[in-house]
Amino acid sequence: MDTVTLNEEILELKKKRKAVILAHSYERPEVQDIADFVGDSLGLSREAAKTDADIIVFAGVHFMAETAAILNPKKTVLIPDLDAGCSLADTIAASDVAKWREANPDGQIVAYVNTSAEVKALSDVCVTSANAVEVVKHLDPNRPIFFLPDMFLGAHVERVTGIKMHIWMGECHVHAGIGDQEIKDTMSKHPNAEFLIHPECSCGSSCLYLNPDAKMLSTEGMVNYAKASTRDEFVIATEVGIIHRLEKMAPGKKFLPIKESAVCQYMKMITLEKILASLREDKFVVRVEPEIANKARSAIETMIRFG
Ligand code: 13P
Ligand code: SF4
What we know:
alpha/beta, Rossmann fold, 3 domains, 45% helix, globular, binds iron/sulfur cluster
């Protein structure tokens, strides 16, 4: 089936079934283009919390769809490919979190949204890259804080807030692969470009050292920043799917990916064909055990209020 026919069938079925399509900014361009809402993890969670649709088709990865399911226990949440996981979320298990809690009964556990529902259920608050700094600033600095699972985001939060935390040594394979060499190479090739860096990148601290004007931003933060900036050339240090969204939202400006091969294969698993199959056959329903969902919900709801 060609793209035009696929789009028509998806739109028709979406209307008939009162469904909404939410897509992350790392999704394929054609998937972003058919979505009702495109954004970062925070924006997508907020959108999921307020939608009046009967069905949410999540064009993103599993933890995002799971978060939507926790916020909407009465709605059907679908993920078009169950294998769309996250290497970062896979670095930590609920048993790791329980162990820290046992050793730190008065501690505060801050879980990045890139975690399983079971991990969220044991956490006090969730964060995304868009609001992690703000949330941590509101914690009690006199009680131990466990920040999980991304070590580079954790280091960024410590650097900005000055608050020392126990940080889980997890990383995302895509962002960990954006390192010092990529920064040095692009800085010498594009001396006039502004650098926008996702805090999951392993190059964060050295980039700020080499280029103190670089901005550490979530994916939606990059979009908002580029739209408002008077500059017209940007080096983008994150997954390359964001380039399509940046070009759409800030037309006429130039966006250079720092690394063409920074591709999240999980995000790219979602295709128009799979979205159509998802709407036709309810593939695949994301379910979270009510006991886990009830425990995780307040940490997610707190996250939504910040930033
Ligand atoms: P954002 O919250 O900035 O969209 O990041 C999500 C993500 O998975 C980054 O790899
Ligand atoms: Fe997970 Fe990394 Fe993919 Fe984001 S880019 S979904 S953190 S594997």
